[in-house]
Amino acid sequence: MRKQPVLEKYVVARIMKALKQQGGVVVRKRHGTAMGVAGDPDLYGSIRGRHFEIEVKRPDDPGSIPTELQAHRMQEWRAADALVGIARSVEDALAILDVSVPDSEQEALK
Length: 110
Ligand SMILES: [Mg+2]
Known about the structure:
The chain is α+β, with helices and mostly antiparallel strands. It has one domain: Trna Endonuclease, Chain: A, domain 1, CATH 3.40.1350. It has helices spanning 8-20, 68-79, 90-96, 103-106, and strands at residues 25-29, 43-47, 50-56, 83-87. It is globular, with a radius of gyration of 14 Å.
């Protein structure tokens, strides 16, 4: 039987849970609505005074890359000195935010 691909929403949920466990972090999921700006990243928030923007993509899928518009939006945030990146895992998200995880907790992120 073929392995089921991991859905982006699953990765989003894992990342949000992990970030909420960090001190000094507020994280929010952006919902695509007519009121939003098209192409803005999936997650945004603040970590100890730094604004961050995270575009979440499916793991194990090289074809899952940002659209041109998403790349443009990320560049806008980066130019404004936000912490910005693409995350396919909790580890990726923590690296974008420059959060180091003790070795003893690494396994829990897998
Ligand atoms: Mg996404």
